């Protein structure tokens, strides 16, 4: 019997499913929807979990109508055990950690959790954390976690239903997509999931329509470009309509007032105007245009006005209905009821590499390089010299970063000093020299590479450089006490109090993405600042 690769899998971000897995998913949704419309009970039974003891648990720590209710109705389709945590009266309010709360619930025969929260990366963390609990307590299965929206981060099941609806309107054709994203692209997690989600289409063109205050964060734009999408940006619908090459699929998102600061809220009318569709725009749309929206829309200030409800533009209602079909299929896959016939690749993993990033330099050819230490370094008999720090940055940036390096490496108490020099190429670089007895182990070198990539470390004994290392940018940075994600909504941020150890992975453009919330950082930004 073949293995079902979907069984027990969590969906924390859209990339947790490979492109081929998502395409398989869409075909299954098509099948299910056709069976529902045709009342074909025999086919529907093939999808049904049909087990009153199979526990599906909804935990919504943030408001929801569609996501929560479509999941609940999907779970009922399966004749499964459906529960909901009453969050406002749970022990989370007594200071219990998420790990303790969810582990406990999984002990009560619950196999799939559907979780919405303001805390970004919560499901990814719970997925890791629950493995140990399951083992410790000999539970028959490790639970799976479905992210039903985490802060401003992702909303992978919305992404699946959005794409299914685009595909429905494309005749299930994956070859290309031209999509306009209109609205609050800064706070909207549904549009953030599109940066990886739209990869299921071979050729993608995305038009971003938002005033600067609500613009798509750079890290998602960067990701879209890395994924080969053509990306254009416009500050209003009016400006977009002037460009001549407008999409036939428009995806609107609501201005998320609840996530905005005072400064932006003061300008809400003006901002809303630039992303609200108006009657006078109607005849400038292309034939066959469809509007989509994850909903809700605001009753007094809808960006898709209600006079459009009865027009052929309206795809948002069918999109919301598709939500339940998509969620029925997702539950069926994770429960292992369907999916055994899938034989494609599993989960797209970013190839971040695992090359050696601390390289020992052959000292037999070093004579030329030693001469370079002319600025106060040579007199050291015993000690360390870290050279080529932050090459190319400004002197003040280099100085600030050298202070951080000293404190992170724990060498700030010793003798010696810091130096900034300017090379023949006109670029500045930093040098830290510390006379004294320093024993740097592998962990210290890793720490050095993480905080000062592209530097050299010289270990000097009896006036001679006895060891020399060059550091490169590490593929992963984790397991250091003084790391910190800069996003205070991230599960790993100290203010969340969950004790989650921060972890970062290198992106193709040399940033470090937090593995939980996805936020991009430079190597300088991922360290706790002291004092
Ligand atoms: C969205 C959400 O919660 O992210 N709604 C949804 O799930 N259908 C969008 C929103 O809140 O505006």
TrEMBL record:
Ranges for domain Aspartate/ornithine carbamoyltransferase Asp/Orn-binding: 177-333
Superkingdom, taxonomy of origin: Bacteria
A single Gene Ontology CC term: aspartate carbamoyltransferase complex
Domain Aspartate carbamoyltransferase regulatory subunit C-terminal: 476-526
Catalytic reactions of this protein: carbamoyl phosphate + L-aspartate = N-carbamoyl-L-aspartate + phosphate + H(+)
Pfam families found in the cross-reference section: OTCace, OTCace_N, PyrI, PyrI_C
UniProt pathway annotation: Pyrimidine metabolism; UMP biosynthesis via de novo pathway; (S)-dihydroorotate from bicarbonate: step 2/3
One Gene Ontology term from the biological process aspect of the record: amino acid metabolic process
Keyword Cell membrane: no
Keywords: Metal-binding, Pyrimidine biosynthesis, Transferase, Zinc
EC number: 2.1.3.2
Protein's recorded name: Aspartate carbamoyltransferase
Provenance organism: Candidatus Aphodenecus pullistercoris
Source taxonomy: Bacteria, Pseudomonadati, Spirochaetota, Spirochaetia, Spirochaetales
């Amino acid at each position: 019997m073949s293995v079902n690769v979907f069984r027990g899998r969590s969906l924390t971000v859209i990339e947790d499913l490979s492109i081929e897995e998502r395409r398989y998913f869409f075909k299954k949704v098509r099948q299910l929807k056709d069976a529902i419309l045709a009342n074909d009970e025999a086919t529907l039974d093939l999808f049904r979990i049909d087990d009153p003891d199979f526990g599906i648990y909804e935990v919504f720590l943030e408001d929801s109508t569609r996501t929560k209710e479509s999941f609940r109705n999907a779970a009922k389709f399966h004749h499964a055990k459906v529960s909901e945590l009453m969050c406002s009266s749970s022990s989370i309010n007594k200071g219990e950690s998420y790990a303790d709360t969810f582990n406990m619930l999984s002990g009560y025969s619950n196999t799939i959790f559907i979780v919405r929260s303001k805390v970004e990366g919560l499901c990814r963390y719970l997925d890791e954390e629950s493995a140990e609990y399951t083992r410790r307590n000999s539970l028959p299965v490790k639970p799976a976690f479905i992210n039903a929206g985490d802060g401003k981060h992702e909303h992978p099941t919305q992404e699946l239903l959005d794409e299914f609806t685009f595909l429905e309107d494309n005749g299930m054709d994956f070859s290309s997509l031209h999509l306009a994203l209109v609205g609050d692209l800064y706070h909207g997690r549904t549009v953030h999931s599109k940066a990886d989600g739209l990869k299921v289409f071979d050729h993608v063109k995305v038009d971003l329509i938002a005033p600067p205050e609500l613009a798509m964060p750079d890290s998602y734009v960067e990701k879209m470009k890395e994924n080969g999408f053509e990306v254009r940006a416009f500050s209003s619908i009016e400006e977009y309509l002037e460009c001549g090459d407008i999409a036939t699929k428009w995806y609107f998102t609501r201005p998320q007032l609840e996530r905005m600061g005072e400064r932006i809220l003061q300008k809400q009318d003006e901002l809303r105007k630039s992303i609200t569709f108006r009657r006078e725009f109607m005849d400038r749309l292309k034939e066959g245009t469809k509007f989509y929206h994850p909903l809700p829309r605001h009753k007094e200030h809808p960006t898709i006005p209600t006079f459009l409800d009865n027009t052929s533009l309206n795809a948002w209602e069918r999109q919301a209905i598709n939500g339940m079909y998509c969620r029925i299929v997702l539950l069926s896959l994770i429960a292992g009821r369907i999916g055994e016939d899938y034989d494609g690749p599993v989960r797209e993993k970013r190839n971040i590499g695992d090359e050696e990033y601390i390289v020992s330099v052959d000292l037999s050819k070093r004579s030329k390089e030693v001469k370079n230490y002319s600025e106060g370094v040579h007199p050291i008999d015993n000690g360390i010299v870290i050279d080529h720090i932050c090459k190319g940055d400004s002197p003040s940036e280099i100085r600030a970063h050298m202070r951080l390096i000293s404190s992170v490496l724990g060498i700030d108490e010793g003798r010696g000093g810091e130096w900034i020099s300017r090379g023949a190429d006109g670029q500045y670089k930093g040098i830290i020299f510390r006379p004294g007895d320093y024993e740097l182990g592998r962990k210290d070198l890793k720490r050095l590479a993480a905080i000062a990539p592209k530097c050299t470390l010289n270990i000097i004994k009896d006036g001679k450089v006895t060891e020399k290392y060059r550091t490169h940018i590490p593929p992963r940075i984790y397991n250091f006490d003084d790391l910190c994600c800069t996003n205070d909504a991230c599960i790993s941020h100290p203010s969340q109090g969950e004790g989650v150890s921060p972890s970062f992975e290198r992106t193709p453009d040399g940033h470090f993405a937090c593995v939980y919330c996805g936020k991009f950082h430079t190597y300088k930004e991922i360290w706790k600042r002291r004092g």
